[in-house]
Amino acid sequence: MLTQTLLRPRLMSALAAGPRLAAAAAYSTATATGDLAPRKVLITGSLGQLGAVLASCFRGHFGAENVITSDIRRPAAGGGEVALAAANDGPFVFLDVRDRASVEKVVVENKVDTIIHLSALLSAIGEREPQRALDVNINGLHNILEIARVHNASVFCPSTIGAFGPSTPVDQTPDLTIMRPTTIYGISKVHMELLGEYYANRYGVDFRSVRYPGIISADEPGGGTTDYAIDIFHHALKTGTYNCFLHENTRLPMMYIDDCIEGTFKFITAPREKLTQSTYNMGAIDFTPAELTSSMQRHMPNLSVSYSPDFRQKIADSWPNSLDDSSARKDWGWDPKFDLDSMVDVMFKNLKK
Ligand SMILES: NC(=O)c1ccc[n+]([C@@H]2O[C@H](COP(=O)([O-])OP(=O)(O)OC[C@H]3O[C@@H](n4cnc5c(N)ncnc54)[C@H](O)[C@@H]3O)[C@@H](O)[C@H]2O)c1
Ligand SMILES: C[C@@H](O)[C@H](N)C(=O)O
Fold it and tell me: Which residues form the NAD-dependent epimerase/dehydratase domain (predicted)?
């Protein structure tokens, strides 16, 4: 398997250009597996927690002008440097994924061949607004798959540990198992996994998905159940205290953003023939709020955390403790690097900056 790490001239000039561009370019060193042929990429939901960073990674490899970012909102002041860069460092268009004609126009006019479909309502916000979650997560996906079928584009759309449910085996949850989620988010993601596979088998669409755990980064999270693991850092640095919305012993699978981006880029660029399934578990670390607190107390011995579980506790209780990701490791070389302590160290380093 051809593996290459590229530190492109574009990254070198971004680093020379100053801190904002350098922040955006930081992810362009991700490793590709195999196919680095030129691509024309459309990313939906680009201003969210993952989209901004993925856009930076793809622009670093394929050129800013070849990666169109899009969202239903404009980058807000205070939305973070990487989110601003996602909109400002290359083409950005306003797109509502529920509006098929608008998405299709962008794909056709720009000869897009790769769609990274990130627009979604996450687990907690989905339970607050189930009808809007259905609309965005289901109708948006239908539009993307149809456009990909008609215009011969590949699709990457992430799934989640939220696709599992209370009857799923909780430890080392395998790729193929009982999937009866109880949130609208999880139901929409199981639908996405199955429909994507149908489009692959029936129409030959190159559809790929991974089940991410909770992703931890310095950027603002989008309204999920794993958000506590980000919020806690911000509160700790501002006030030295945090009131966690999950119970102290709630174990969930998690992953640091650098591993997420590195793995996602590897997966999307992996040769098709290496893949034996359309959706893969992507595990990394797992911990409880109490364990995260202990690790953070290495930096802040006086950090004080209290616990007031709310409606998100029920969601968390329906998800796995840890994932079996052996197929991802075997098929396309998934190899996460961050453990709990190294993730905490880098989060403090970045946030203090
Ligand atoms: N962040 C995580 O921990 C995590 C874990 C597992 C899976 N995922 C998946 O990764 C993807 C991205 O997640 P994220 O954390 O960046 O989410 P996010 O909530 O931060 O970003 C989602 C983006 O979608 C946009 N959006 C909402 N409705 C839209 C519409 N109608 N049209 C176009 N855009 C719309 C929002 O404005 C937002 O910027 C999602 O599919 C999510 O399910 C994320
Ligand atoms: C796990 C993931 O899908 C998201 N962070 C959520 O909690 O909803």
Answer: 41-283
Known active-site residue 185: yes
DSSP assigned state of 41 = E
Q: Which residue has the tokens 């209370």?
A: 166
Are 124 and 225 within 8 A, CB to CB?
yes
From the candidates 27, 185, 212, 256, which is the catalytic residue? Answer: 185
pLDDT, averaged in runs of 10, over the chain (353 residues): 28 32 47 74 96 94 96 75 78 97 98 98 98 98 98 98 98 98 98 98 98 95 96 97 98 98 97 97 98 98 98 98 98 98 97 86
What ranges do the domains of the chain cover? 7-213+256-284+323-337
Q: Does the beta carbon of 257 sit less than 6 angstroms from any atom of ligand 2? A: no
Rounded Cα–Cα distance for residues 120 and 133 (Å): 7
Which option is the CATH number for 7-213+256-284+323-337: 3.40.50.720, 2.40.50.100, 3.40.50.9100, 2.40.37.10? 3.40.50.720
Neighbour tally for 87: CB within 10 Å = 21
Write down the pLDDT at residue 337: 97
- ipTM field: 0.99
- Measured in whole angstroms, the distance separating CA 69 from the mean position of its chain's CA atoms is 15
Cβ 183 under 6 angstroms from ligand 1: no
Predicted local distance difference test score (pLDDT) of residue 20: 32
**Residue with CA closest to ligand 2 atom 3:** 160
Tell me how far the alpha carbon of residue 220 lies from the centroid of ligand 2, in angstroms. Answer: 13
Which residues, in sequence order, are bridge partners of residue 68?
42
pLDDT of residue 344: 98
Output the six-digit token pair for 198: 């149908």
Per-residue model confidence (pLDDT) at position 327? 98
Query: Going along the chain, which residue ranges are E strands?
Result: 3-5, 31-33, 41-44, 67-71, 92-94, 114-117, 154-156, 159-160, 207-212, 214-216, 241-244, 252-256, 279-281, 285-287, 304-307
